[in-house]
Design the sequence.
């Protein structure tokens, strides 16, 4: 039945609802993806309602409670469920606020690299010729560097900070979107429906973005989830190297950088921010796998 | 042998085609490295002089001596000429040529990366094959679940965690460096494993190995996850092909079907994946080497960024990009050799 449903969905363009239902059918088949989605929604809730959920101010320093262990350990206090860091800030509150920064980084970086990548990719794939050559050569140049190194150096030029880190990461991720979009556009360009639209008098802009682009979205969505999680990892890595968010921002990578010296004595300041990063990235990657299975017709029945 | 002649000819054309793309890319990379120091806020002469205050005459003198008063295009061509003759600049901090420092530190990164990729291949390919054969089973789910966790791992944290558990609590491995300070011998190959063996000092090799274990695991984790996932999906695709079914129908053992018929074809995309890990490795080396104080080019770049040694950043960026481009070219050529389909 899946085959018939898929074909009719493409050719007769039924309501958006039917397509969504079909998508959900495949997505929900993947148990991991659903778990990932649930976790991700929880994280979004945490981020949005952080000021109401967090028990303390994330940058408030409680001088009488420095390096208090989590509540279940000897010496732990109920006021600081996950303990406190070296200057007496509540770990739980910092972790909750950290969700905001990580999801923010993911959204901004993915949006920037997606929009820029789609624009350049569509132009390159649609017009071909020298425009294509120039765009793709520039992308090759960006891809010639290890991504984290280029981002690190860019941040060194722009100045350390979360905003500059996001710009650098978005720039480094862009070529993947350009390549994917270009390839998809090139394979769609010669299809009958595009030719028909052209004959009907559609201009370049309409052909590129209204006719062709919507049919190229599947691989881009999958790549977008992948870069969402990579952006969080890279931003945390830059924070860890001292080039991302600056203290006292409760960003998870920056928290880890500050916690390095307590590695042998106070496990919670080192372990907890890493677990937060891992859970977030894992949830998004689980969703990404589910999206790929649901959107990639080649894998649908395997 | 007319056929072989044809294949050789195509290989040559393939190489030419790749070079036609590579050369402009290298020029672009060199322009980026060149303009990098000029994009920085402040003027380069003041930057080179560091904290000292300079008179305008002295400034003009240095500016002239370094050629900053010439047109920018001339400066770039001069820079490119230097690069093509092996002059990648001189470190502001150590006053040593960047290229010398690079070759001093590069073997450490290569040694670590090779161990990490071997670790990833040795565990990843069998894991992927087993998961594909036992598809849908508990083993498959456990392996692929673990692979996804590995793929999502913030490796700088993973390194800290391993140091905390293995070096700290269990005291099994040292925390940092390439070899214990007790041992000293001149570098012969630059690879600590080989040099420690050549030195003939008792315990040196063991020390080198124990220093290498954790960094290898940390750097190899993401490639391991990627290779395992890729091997599984490539195997699944191949296992449903007609020729595999034919082999099965002929009554060949599962081992023979999987090992001889399926795996050989499934490995083609896996080899590409392994090749693509080169850049990933170098990016990972930045974090891994920083955590384990591993004296390689990743740590060198991070240190240079924090010391604001712009000459090293500029030179290092260019050398590293050049190395990656050459390695990718070699991978492409090897790929052409094992997969005749893309030669035509």
Sequence:
């Amino acid at each position: 039945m899946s085959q018939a449903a898929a074909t009719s969905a493409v050719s007769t363009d039924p309501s958006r609802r039917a397509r969504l239902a079909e998508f959900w059918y495949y997505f929900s088949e993947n148990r991991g993806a659903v778990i990932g989605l649930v976790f991700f929604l929880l994280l979004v809730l945490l981020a949005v309602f952080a000021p109401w959920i967090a028990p303390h101010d994330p940058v408030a320093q409680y001088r009488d409670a420095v390096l208090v262990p989590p509540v279940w350990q000897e010496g732990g206090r109920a006021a600081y469920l996950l303990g406190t860091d070296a200057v007496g800030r509540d770990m739980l509150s910092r972790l909750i606020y950290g969700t905001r920064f990580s999801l923010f980084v993911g959204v901004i970086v993915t949006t920037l690299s997606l929009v820029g990548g789609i624009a350049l990719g569509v132009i390159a794939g649609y017009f071909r010729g020298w425009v294509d050559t120039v765009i793709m050569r520039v992308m090759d140049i960006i891809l010639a560097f290890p991504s984290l190194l280029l981002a690190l150096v860019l941040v060194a030029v722009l100045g350390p900070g979360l905003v500059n880190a996001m710009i650098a990461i978005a720039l480094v991720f862009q070529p993947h979107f350009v390549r994917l979009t270009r390839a998809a556009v090139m394979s769609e360009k010669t299809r009958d429906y595009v030719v028909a639209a052209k004959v009907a008098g559609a201009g370049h802009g309409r052909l590129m973005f209204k006719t062709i682009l919507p049919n190229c979205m599947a691989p881009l969505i999958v790549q977008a989830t992948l870069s969402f999680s990579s952006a969080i990892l890279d931003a945390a890595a830059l924070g860890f190297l001292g080039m991302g968010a600056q203290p006292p921002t409760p960003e998870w990578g920056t928290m880890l950088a500050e916690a390095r010296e307590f590695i042998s004595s106070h496990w919670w300041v080192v372990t907890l921010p890493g677990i937060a990063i891992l859970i977030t990235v894992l949830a998004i990657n689980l969703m990404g796998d589910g999206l790929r299975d649901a959107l990639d017709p080649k894998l649908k029945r395997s | 042998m007319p056929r072989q002649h044809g294949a050789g000819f195509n290989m040559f054309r393939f190489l030419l085609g790749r070079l036609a793309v590579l050369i402009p890319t290298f020029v672009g990379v060199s322009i980026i490295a060149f303009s990098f120091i000029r994009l920085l806020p402040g003027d380069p002469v003041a930057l080179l002089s560091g904290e000292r205050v300079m008179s305008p005459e002295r400034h003009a003198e240095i500016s002239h001596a370094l050629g900053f008063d010439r047109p920018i295009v001339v400066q770039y061509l001069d820079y490119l000429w230097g690069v093509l003759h092996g002059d990648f600049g001189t470190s502001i901090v150590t006053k040593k040529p960047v290229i010398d420092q690079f070759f001093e530190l590069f073997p450490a990164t290569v040694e670590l990366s090779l161990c990490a990729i071997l670790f990833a291949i040795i565990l990843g390919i069998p894991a992927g094959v087993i998961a594909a054969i036992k598809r849908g089973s508990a083993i498959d789910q456990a392996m692929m679940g673990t692979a996804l966790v590995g793929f999502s791992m913030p490796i700088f944290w993973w390194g800290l965690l391993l140091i905390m558990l293995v070096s700290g609590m269990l005291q099994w491995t040292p925390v940092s460096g390439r070899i214990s300070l007790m041992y000293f011998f001149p570098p012969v190959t630059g690879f600590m494993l080989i040099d420690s063996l050549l030195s003939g000092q008792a315990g040196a090799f063991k020390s080198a190995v124990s220093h290498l274990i954790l960094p290898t695991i940390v750097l190899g984790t993401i490639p391991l996850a990627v290779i395992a996932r890729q091997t599984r999906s490539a195997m699944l695709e191949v296992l449903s092909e007609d020729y595999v079914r034919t082999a099965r129908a002929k009554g060949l053992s599962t081992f023979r079907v999987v090992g001889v018929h399926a795996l050989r074809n499934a490995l083609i995309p896996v080899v590409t994946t392994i090749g693509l890990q080169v850049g990933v490795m170098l990016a990972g080396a930045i974090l891994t080497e920083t955590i384990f104080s591993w004296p390689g080019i990743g740590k060198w770049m991070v240190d240079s960024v924090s010391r604001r040694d712009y000459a090293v950043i500029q030179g290092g960026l260019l050398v590293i990009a050049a190395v990656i481009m050459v390695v990718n070219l070699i991978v492409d050529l090897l790929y052409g050799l094992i997969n005749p389909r893309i030669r035509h």
